[in-house]
Amino acid sequence: MVVGLGCCAVFLFWSVWTGTWPIPRGKENREKAALFLKREFPDRVIRPAVEESSTAPVAAVFYIIQSGEEGDAIKAIEFATEQSFGYGSPYVIERLESDNPEVRHAARQFLQKMAGKDYGSNAQAWKEWWDDPPRKLFGVMTVGHNTVQTGIPIASGLIGILLLSIGSQRNKVIFSALGSGLLLIGWFLFFCTAGIQFVGSFDTFTFGGIEIVYHQDHGVVEGLKDAKVGGAGLWLLLCLTFVTVPFIVMAGVFVVSHLWRSPSKTNSPSATQ
């Protein structure tokens, strides 16, 4: 009972924390991106058509922010600000280094809305914000979202190992059981965290004849090609790691334990007789 409650509490806290991303996604406004593109860039056609992909227009807005001419970038940034397309932040941050003060102003306005705070005109400060967006933990202390998301599985695993050690030394079954549960849930959540942070779902479209690669998840554009490390291949590698590493560790523990006990048996009185 205690083991189940402890593991459920860890999993529930991690799930709630992970699911409440502190930066606006703007998913509810994605349909407006197609209208914006038709109005501002009528000569650039999107393939596949907007009717076939609701996410491609948002990715096109991100592309204009990142690679478009300064005038076009300003329009795209202002539109993204209105629609709260928070995942465009990395490309807006790059525009803070523009020589054009109007571009920098539009970029800063966007970032202030997404962060709910002004980190100044320095691009590096905004990059640090994006890498680990701060938020309140239990409404008391400010911590980084990704720090806690990664820290929960690591802390769960370390506490699990500690409890296993205590249970083994003191022959306490409850400690061993709880330690095993926390170690398993920690490993599972670590696998999930790696998948969320590094794996994306690749998609492609053309905008004005230019092919653009982007990532989307459940209708939300998470960024262009560089937003994630890999796709299906990386996911399969993570799954293989998730399955094989525990067996490798158990085999290693068995071998070490066997080698550790062997000398004691050979040096025992019964062995010498």
Folded structure, characterized:
The protein is α+β, with helices and mostly antiparallel strands. It has 2 domains: 2-240, no CATH class; 241-273. Helices cover 65% and strands 11% of the residues. It contains 11 helices and 6 strands. Strands 1-4-5-6 form a 4-stranded antiparallel β-sheet, covered by helices on one side. Helix 1 (2-19) packs antiparallel against helix 8 (145-170). The two termini are 49 Å apart. 26% of the residues are buried. The model has no long low-confidence stretch (mean pLDDT 89).
Helix proportion range: 55-70%
Mean pLDDT: 89
Q: What structural category arises from helix and sheet content?
A: alpha+beta
DSSP strand content: 5-15%
Task: Give the overall form.
Answer: elongated
Count of individual beta strands: 6
Ends apart, CA distance between termini: 49 Å
Explain the layout of strands and helices.
Layout: H1 2-19, H2 30-40, E1 46-47, H3 56-67, H4 70-83, H5 89-95, H6 101-115, H7 123-131, E2 134-137, E3 141-144, H8 145-170, H9 173-198, E4 202-207, E5 210-217, E6 220-224, H10 232-266, H11 269-272
Helix pairs in contact: 1-8, 1-9, 2-3, 3-4, 3-5, 4-6, 5-6, 5-7, 8-9, 9-10
